Task: inverse folding
């Protein structure tokens, strides 16, 4: 039985990027805010010591920064005819844990979605016709917002994160050296681009010769010392190569712990409750008002924390699970396509071409998650899809994240898996190996969705989240197309061997693909097909905001963190500017 | 040393009669003011004086005492100065408070020099009155503190009379008419309320300030307290006024980030000083109180020295990632080592300490980051630490005596007991 605590103004569930942003913005407003985090307090000074942070076994192999599957996991299956089984070890994706969340171990790649993304369904029908859209068998939706509404919030997030890059489009003017497919930005990136190692440099040179427009991958590993608008200081990236899956010891990688929490935790009206796991949002008898949350603290005691305003920002998986456990919205039904909670679960279609050179040295141990060069001609609807039989595409990049010794033993196909020949091959190919990736779109189809598992439960007795997913035909055709294209670039770069790996079905948990899961609690303008309005306010429960990648109706060929940050600022702006003056539904 | 001390202690016994404190006395014309401006002023004076540094224990009630000070003579615990009648200063009158502040004479007997009355003696009557009024607005807390936990013979308070004869010049601050008002305000804070010399001035054998070497560096609780005189090599001669203001207000400037006890000072006190007071203190510290501050720096140890070479290699491997290969660091995050007087102090205790045990910078509202230096004591030997520090102390415009492995070993050993 939960013990009821004195009420507060705001509870925020999750202290990763989205939750920390909301908590900070609302604490700025003078509200009393309690932030809940199921994992520990993490902080660069204590947790990511330069003398011990670059530990591949601890952080990459043993996944210290990830959620423990013993605490909470998901069950998975490819379609409704199968029985889902729990993931007992993270493979395909890496949910984070602790303050900073997945923002501690992310790569730092900080895209804005392009303008067409926010109205994808309308855009495709306008360009290719209703029939072509129907033939795709996709269940795409518009976001109910647009570029102009999103732009200021992207800019705010980039300023907080110190994003380093080169603009491709400032107020409609295309900028040399930037990504010309970007939407019109209000200004340049806060910091100049990172320096580039040889791999990305060779890629960009070749791509330019082929007529592509290479650009610097926008990076929230900062290129120079930077103090953000909250007064928090970051140090320049050292290209140390212990980046994705690691916490940053140099204060270079933007995360809530390096950009927001040092300022937020000083505020007397903010309290962080760590190692405290929220189980559900409580609703009043009418079901039209959230009254607080139920959580269990580190000692195992369960409490009810009442609040006037409830913000759920607990990563896509837990956002959707909490809504299902709390009875918010109608669970999605894959047979009828009706219902909203769990709808349009999408992933990322990660493709790759690995290049082996005999005569080149890429020094692959130099790198960082967002160090790299990209091209965007193959992304989203940046190329004509007429007659191709698919929609979508991906951002094509060379981003050497650092090739640490346990996980990086590149050998060409056909090499024995062990023994002297394998060792010789590793030695021969380590320095001359690089890869071109294509982080491609994942579009919704009726059978992919999130629901509660009927069998498996967490240690508190609550059902786990069940993921029913496989890549749609559309995305498989897209994967083949873009991988052929990046293979061509690899050939032109002069690789002795190009190993193309387009994503194939069935989706499985055997190797890492991407942590970019989206959907399940969608943003939109129609309450029958979406869960939150464009202010991230839940339809029918105006004091409940659900923020994160769960809001994306489908996933474009971009990493989502920039958009998660922008959505958090968008929600905070609406609450501060509109909701607090007139609490209630902001869109009738 | 013992002989000298015993002489002093012996001498002091003869003077007992002079020190007996009077009982709570009559109204002395300085009652407690409840006027808002006076109390607010008093709060600010208490902040300038950083009373909380010793009288507020971490996690404890404000000014209820309990912070233990490790002196070379033993342990002293700062008493409860809330207006609680039984265990605080609730039964004192203003005159008693003034005596404690300016003469080191409290109703309990003579105060030890850890209470910086040798500096506070310069505080004006008006400021003392405001502070007195403010202290009566603090929540009274019942917290009985045994302040004097010194071993014999230092626990005999009467021994302090002899101490005073040598170390104490009583009297309110007298402005120097040859100097500007701003300089005089700075002097009033630095020499008086701010009691900077309490830490920054070298101590004589019985713990008194060597006033001829005012602010010329000391060592306390295994920290080097650096020279903050205007000396161009070891002092703050190369810092601009703005650098000093930035440091005191934000805990950082382009040279350094406050850590250790100075981080506490910035956090509790100087980040709240007014701009005018910050400027005044900077003016005073830059000008100093007397003539020439140019000293001829020593020659750096040659780069081919057999300590410098391995030191440079260790620097490249372990330090350069943050402090940068040219030693310039990152402002506000990784302190600059190049051409930095803090690297050139005669006593390298702080440098050894932060390499051995790490250190976390203070954080302020203006600079909330609070970065840290990691500990390397667990994976670097005494010789490696000595060499890398010798390298840092003699590179990029620095020049100072070498650090020896035995210096490191000694501190390593002493910190085991911390």
Result:
């Amino acid at each position: 039985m939960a013990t009821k605590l004195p009420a507060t103004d705001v509870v925020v569930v999750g202290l990763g990027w989205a939750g920390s942003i909301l908590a900070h913005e609302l604490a700025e407003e003078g509200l009393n805010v309690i932030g809940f985090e199921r994992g520990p307090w993490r902080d660069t000074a204590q947790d990511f010591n330069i003398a011990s942070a670059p530990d591949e076994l601890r952080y990459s192999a043993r996944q210290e920064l990830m959620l423990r599957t013993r605490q909470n996991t998901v069950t998975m299956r490819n379609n409704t005819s199968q029985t889902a089984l729990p993931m007992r070890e993270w493979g395909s994706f890496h949910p984070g844990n602790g303050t900073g969340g997945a923002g501690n171990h992310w790569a730092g790649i900080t895209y804005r979605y392009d303008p067409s993304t926010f109205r994808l369904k309308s855009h495709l029908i306008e360009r290719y016709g209703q029939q072509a859209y129907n033939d795709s068998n996709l269940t795409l939706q518009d976001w109910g917002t647009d570029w102009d509404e999103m732009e200021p919030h992207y800019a705010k997030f980039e300023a907080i994160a110190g994003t380093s890059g080169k603009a491709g489009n400032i107020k409609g003017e295309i900028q040399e050296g930037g990504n010309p497919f970007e939407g019109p930005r209000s200004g340049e990136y806060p910091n100049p681009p990172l320096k580039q190692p040889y791999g990305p440099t060779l890629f960009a040179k070749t791509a330019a010769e082929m007529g592509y427009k290479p650009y610097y991958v926008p990076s929230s590993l900062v290129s120079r010392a930077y103090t953000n608008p909250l007064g928090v200081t970051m140090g320049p990236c050292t290209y140390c190569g212990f980046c994705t899956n690691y916490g940053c010891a140099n204060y270079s990688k933007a995360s809530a712990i390096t950009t927001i929490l040092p300022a937020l935790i000083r505020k007397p009206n903010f309290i962080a409750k760590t190692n405290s796991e929220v189980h559900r949002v409580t609703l009043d008898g009418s079901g039209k008002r959230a009254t607080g949350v139920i959580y269990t603290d580190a000692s195992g005691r369960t409490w009810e924390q009442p609040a006037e305003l409830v913000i759920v920002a607990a990563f896509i998986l837990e956002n959707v699970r909490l809504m299902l456990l709390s009875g918010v919205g109608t669970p999605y039904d894959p047979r009828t396509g009706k219902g909203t909670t769990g709808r349009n679960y999408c992933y990322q279609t990660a493709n790759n071409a690995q290049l082996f050179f005999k005569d080149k040295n890429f020094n692959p141990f130099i790198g960082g998650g967002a160090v790299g060069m990209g091209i965007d001609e193959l992304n989203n609807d940046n190329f004509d899809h007429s007659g191709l039989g698919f929609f979508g595409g991906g951002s094509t990049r060379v981003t050497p994240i650092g090739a640490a010794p346990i996980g990086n033993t590149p050998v060409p196909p056909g090499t024995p898996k062990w023994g002297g020949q394998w060792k010789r091959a590793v030695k021969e190919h380590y320095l001359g190996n690089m890869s071109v990736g294509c982080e491609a779109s994942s579009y919704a189809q009726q059978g992919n969705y999130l629901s509660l598992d009927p069998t498996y439960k967490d240690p508190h007795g609550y059902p786990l989240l069940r993921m029913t997913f496989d890549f749609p035909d559309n995305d498989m055709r897209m994967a083949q197309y873009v991988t052929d294209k990046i293979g061509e670039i690899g050939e032109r770069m002069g690789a002795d061997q190009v190993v193309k790996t387009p994503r194939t079905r069935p989706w499985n948990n055997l190797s890492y693909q991407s942590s970019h899961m989206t959907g399940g609690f969608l943003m939109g303008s129609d309450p029958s097909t979406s869960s939150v309005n464009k202010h991230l306010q839940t339809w029918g429960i105006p004091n409940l905001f659900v923020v994160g990648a769960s809001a994306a109706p489908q996933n474009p060929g971009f990493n989502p963190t920039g958009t998660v940050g922008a959505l958090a600022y968008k929600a905070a702006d609406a609450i501060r500017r509109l909701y607090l003056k007139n609490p209630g539904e902001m869109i009738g | 040393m013992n002989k000298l001390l015993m002489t002093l202690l012996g001498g002091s016994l003869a003077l007992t009669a002079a020190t007996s404190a009077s009982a709570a006395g009559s109204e002395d014309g300085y009652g407690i003011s409840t006027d808002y401006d006076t109390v607010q002023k008093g709060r600010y004076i208490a902040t300038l004086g950083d009373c909380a540094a010793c009288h507020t224990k971490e996690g404890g009630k404000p000014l209820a005492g309990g912070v233990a000070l490790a002196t070379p003579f033993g342990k002293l615990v700062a008493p409860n100065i809330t207006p609680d009648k039984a265990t605080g200063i609730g039964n004192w009158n203003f005159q008693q408070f003034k005596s404690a502040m300016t003469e080191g004479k409290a109703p309990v007997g003579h105060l030890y020099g850890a209470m910086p009355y040798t500096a506070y003696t310069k505080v004006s009557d008006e400021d003392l009155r405001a502070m007195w009024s403010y202290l009566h607005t603090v929540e009274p807390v019942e917290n009985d503190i045994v302040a004097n936990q010194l071993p014999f013979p230092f626990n005999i308070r009467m021994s302090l009379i002899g101490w005073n004869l040598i170390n104490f010049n009583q009297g309110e601050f007298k402005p120097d008419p040859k100097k500007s008002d701003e300089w005089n305000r700075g002097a009033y804070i630095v020499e008086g309320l701010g009691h900077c010399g309490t830490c920054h001035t070298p101590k004589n054998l019985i713990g008194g300030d060597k006033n001829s070497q005012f602010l010329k560096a000391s060592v306390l609780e295994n920290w080097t307290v650096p020279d903050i005189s205007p000396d161009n090599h070891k002092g703050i001669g190369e810092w601009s006024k703005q650098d000093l203001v930035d440091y005191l207000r934000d805990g950082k400037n382009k040279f350094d980030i406050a850590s250790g006890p100075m981080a506490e000072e910035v956090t509790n006190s100087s980040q709240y000083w007014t701009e005018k007071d910050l400027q005044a203190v900077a003016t005073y510290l830059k000008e100093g109180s007397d003539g020439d501050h140019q000293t001829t720096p020593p020659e750096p140890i040659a780069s081919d020295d057999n300590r410098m070479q391995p030191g440079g290699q260790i620097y490249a491997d372990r330090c350069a990632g943050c402090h940068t290969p040219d030693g310039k660091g990152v402002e506000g995050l990784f302190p600059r080592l190049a051409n930095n007087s803090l690297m050139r102090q005669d006593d390298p205790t702080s440098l050894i300490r932060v390499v051995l045990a790490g250190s976390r910078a203070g954080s302020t509202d203006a600079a909330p980051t609070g970065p840290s230096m990691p500990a390397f004591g667990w994976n670097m030997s005494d010789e490696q630490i000595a060499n890398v520090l010798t390298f840092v102390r003699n590179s990029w415009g620095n020049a100072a005596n070498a650090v020896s492995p035995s210096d490191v070993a000694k501190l390593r050993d002493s910190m085991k007991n911390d």
About this structure: DSSP finds 16 helices and nine strands in chain B. Strands of chain B lie at 68-71, 74-77, 105-106, 109-110, 148-149, 216-220, 223-227, 359-360, 372-373. The first strand of chain B starts at residue 68 and ends at 71. Chain B touches chain A at residues 318, 321-322, 330-334, 358, 360, 363, 365-372, 374-376, 378-379 (CB under 8 Å).
